[in-house]
């Protein structure tokens, strides 16, 4: 589904990603962990297509296509979804409007008929139940005045409505209370299927208690320093990232 | 004398001789004042950023008949505008296209052309403060061909908005009209003013509006300029508010080569409230200029002013917001803001708040911003599959929508929202 080869990227003059290699197959869930500032969000942003991050080398293939050649919105319509670490507030643009426009843009791209207002509302209300969200949120501006946790929940609502093939969740768990974490995990798990893949960026094991990853990677200093199974996350929880420097010297590479 | 002025003079001379003596001398006085003020150039502080060199070169015809039969405004243009409505084409009233039968008893409508000499004198007196605002006001006094005088009786609340439609149809023409609105005690009216350009040739519309609100009267004026791309729009509005009256003025300048609005609202008795909100959308090479003044002459009054602008290409905008709080206007509450969105490096805005506060027990605030489209928001929308163009449109709309959302009348609000949005009206669900 996704093949990242020696990906290098910089913001301004600063090199941030220094050769990322990652293979994600359909049906898999990959967790990416790593210290603050190691480049996790930068990687997520490059995959989503943020323009201020310049790709300086390497390649990304998504479903056989050159992902980096696609415009931001084309990637979205092709099924790539990024749940933001810091969801953006957009005063004046209605939440319900965005959901509908997003869903219909994607359907149109796939040659499906657009949903009318009735069908759309039925669908979105259903998904809101799943996310245990109050319907009044639909009629507010996108993320405007939402609490930190509400914003994260809103990201996952968008995700379950859009049903992406590749979901990238950038620290969706941070800022969530214990109940909200369960609800959000439930939403994410409802999308797990053999055709879909997910990349979870997180700092904490507790998310991975709810969403079991197939692989765990440690990103540090712009490279994936170590990869392993779910047990790697537990080890990190115990021991932190102090070892990363050694691993770097030992030249451990991702599978 | 430039071609524009030569035509103005010709029109003035034709009318000054045609009419009776009192009126002739009034026109003469206004013409003299116009000449004394001189043609506005960028050497004058008030016109520093607004060059009229394009208008100067135009030789525009002025019809001095108040009701000359013209072919009328295109039906499609008037289609969505319900009764009661008054339609002017190229400055001339069009009885056939207007619909005024349904006006309630308490609303009186009179036309300048039908007034007797004494009434004309009163009308002229009441228009004077509006005409005094600019040189174009003086020009209006010398040249105007028709005026409307609307009076709303005490206690009369008109739920349905009254529409005033001014169409520039023929091109190569100028029009000078006058509107006098008097609201008696505790009355209520919404006036929706449509300024529509239906020609791709240059034209000039120069109207003057005077408003007087008696105690507790409520009036909302919603003006939208959709002038032709080569057209000029100058307008002066003067509002006089007595105790406890509420005036809300919304001004949207959506198109035209050059627009200049001079708006002065005077709060002359306690507890009067005014809202002055506007939005300008300036295309490449166009210019919109708002010069506003709010005069707090009396204690316990409030004013709430906000203008927002969106500029493209080498579009230019001028916002000059003067707020004057007189010495004894204690407990004044006044807010002013001006926010601008520049969509290009070549766009330019000159914004100047001008606060003159002489009272000491007041709450006054003002703020100005000039910025670009928020990249983060744009990126976010696109990551949801929204096309780059639509995302941009949505954000521009979101920026300006706030102004439309403040319009009290639900139908007018919805209509203006559509004008600002076009394809994305559902977005109003906020
Ligand atoms: N616009 C920018 N300008 C300058 N530096 C930037 C910019 N964006 C990111 N960086 C830098 O790039 C590095 C990687 O940032 P990134 O946000 O990818 O880290 P992260 O791994 O997601 O961290 P966290 O766990 O704190 O979210 C950081 O050192 C950050 O300061
Ligand atoms: Mg991050």
TrEMBL record, chain A:
This is Fe-S cluster assembly ATPase SufC. Belongs to the ABC transporter superfamily. Ycf16 family. It holds the Pfam family ABC_tran. It comes from the Bacteria. It comes from Ferrovum myxofaciens. Keywords: ATP-binding, Cell membrane, Membrane, Nucleotide-binding. The keyword Nucleotide-binding applies. Residues 2-246 form the ABC transporter domain. Gene3D superfamilies: P-loop containing nucleotide triphosphate hydrolases. The keyword Secreted does not apply. GO terms for molecular function: ATP binding; ATP hydrolysis activity. Signal peptide: none annotated.
TrEMBL record, chain B:
Pfam families: SUFBD_core (PF01458), SufBD_N (PF19295). One of its GO terms (biological process) is iron-sulfur cluster assembly. Residues 25-163 form the SUF system FeS cluster assembly SufBD N-terminal domain. Residues 172-399 form the SUF system FeS cluster assembly SufBD core domain. InterPro entries: Fe-S_cluster_assembly_SufBD, SUF_FeS_clus_asmbl_SufBD_core, SUF_FeS_clus_asmbl_SufBD_sf, SUF_FeS_clus_asmbl_SufD, SufBD_N. PANTHER family: PROTEIN ABCI7, CHLOROPLASTIC. NCBIfam families: sufD (TIGR01981). Belongs to the iron-sulfur cluster assembly SufBD family. This is Fe-S cluster assembly protein SufD. It comes from Ferrovum myxofaciens.
């Amino acid at each position: 589904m996704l093949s990242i080869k020696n990906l290098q990227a910089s913001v301004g003059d600063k090199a941030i990603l220094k050769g990322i290699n990652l293979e994600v197959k359909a049906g898999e869930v990959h967790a990416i962990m790593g210290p603050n500032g190691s480049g996790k969000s930068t990687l997520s942003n490059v995959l989503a297509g943020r323009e201020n991050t310049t790709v300086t080398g390497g390649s990304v293939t998504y479903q056989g296509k050159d992902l980096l050649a696609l415009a931001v919105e084309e990637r979205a319509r092709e099924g790539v979804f990024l749940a933001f670490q810091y969801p953006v507030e957009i005063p004046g643009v209605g939440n319900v409007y965005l959901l509908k426009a997003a869903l219909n843009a994607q359907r149109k791209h796939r040659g499906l008929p657009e949903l009318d207002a009735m069908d759309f509302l039925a669908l979105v209300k259903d998904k809101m139940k799943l996310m245990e969200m109050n319907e009044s949120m639909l009629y507010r501006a996108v993320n405007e005045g939402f609490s930190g946790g509400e914003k994260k929940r809103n990201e996952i609502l968008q995700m379950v409505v859009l049903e992406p093939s590749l979901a990238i969740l950038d620290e969706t768990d941070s800022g969530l209370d214990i109940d909200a974490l369960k609800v959000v995990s439930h939403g994410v798990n409802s999308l797990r299927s053999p055709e879909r893949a997910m990349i979870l960026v997180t700092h904490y094991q507790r998310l991975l208690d709810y969403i079991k990853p197939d692989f765990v990677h440690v990103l540090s200093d712009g490279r994936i320093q170590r990869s392993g199974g779910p047990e790697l996350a537990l080890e990190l929880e115990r021991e932190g990232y102090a070892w990363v420097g050694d691993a770097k010297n030992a030249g451990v590479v991702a599978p | 004398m430039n071609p524009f002025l030569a035509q103005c003079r010709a029109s003035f001379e034709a009318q000054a001789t045609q009419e009776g003596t009192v009126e002739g001398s009034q026109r003469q006085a206004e013409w003299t004042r116009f000449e004394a003020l001189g043609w506005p150039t960028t050497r004058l502080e008030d016109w520093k950023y607004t060059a009229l060199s394009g208008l100067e070169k135009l030789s525009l015809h002025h019809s001095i008949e108040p009701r000359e039969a013209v072919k009328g405004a295109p039906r499609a243009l008037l289609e969505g505008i319900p009764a009661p409505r008054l339609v002017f084409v190229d400055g001339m009233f069009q009885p056939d296209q207007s619909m005024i039968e349904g006006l309630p008893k308490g609303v009186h409508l009179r036309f300048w052309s039908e007034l007797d000499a004494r009434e004309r004198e009163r009308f002229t007196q009441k228009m004077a403060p509006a005409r005094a605002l600019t040189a174009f006001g003086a020009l209006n006094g010398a040249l105007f061909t028709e005026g409307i005088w609307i009076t709303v009786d005490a206690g009369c609340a008109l739920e349905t908005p009254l529409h005033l439609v001014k169409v520039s149809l023929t091109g190569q023409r100028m029009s000078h009209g006058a509107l006098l609105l008097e609201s008696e005690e505790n009355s209520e009216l919404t006036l929706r003013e449509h300024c529509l350009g239906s020609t791709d040739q240059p034209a000039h519309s120069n109207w003057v509006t005077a408003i007087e609100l008696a105690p507790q009267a409520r009036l909302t004026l919603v003006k939208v300029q959709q002038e032709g791309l080569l057209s000029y729009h100058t307008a002066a509005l003067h509002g006089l508010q007595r105790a406890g009256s509420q005036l809300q003025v919304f001004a949207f300048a959506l198109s035209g080569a050059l627009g200049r609005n001079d708006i002065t609202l005077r709060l002359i008795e306690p507890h009067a409230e005014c809202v002055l909100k506007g939005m300008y959308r300036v295309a490449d090479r166009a210019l919109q200029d708002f010069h506003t003044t709010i005069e707090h002459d009396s204690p316990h009054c409030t004013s709430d002013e906000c203008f927002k602008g969106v500029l493209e290409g080498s579009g230019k905008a001028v916002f000059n917001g003067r707020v004057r709080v007189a010495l004894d206007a204690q407990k004044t509450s006044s807010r002013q803001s001006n926010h601008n969105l520049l969509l290009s490096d070549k766009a330019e805005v000159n914004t100047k708040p001008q606060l003159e506060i002489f009272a000491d027990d007041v709450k006054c605030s003002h703020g100005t911003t000039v910025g670009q489209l928020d990249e983060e928001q744009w990126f976010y929308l696109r990551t949801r599959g929204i096309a780059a163009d639509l995302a941009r449109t949505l954000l521009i709309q979101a920026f300006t929508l706030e102004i439309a959302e403040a319009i009290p009348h639900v139908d007018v609000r919805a209509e203006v929202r559509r004008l600002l949005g076009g394809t994305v009206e559902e977005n109003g669900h906020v």
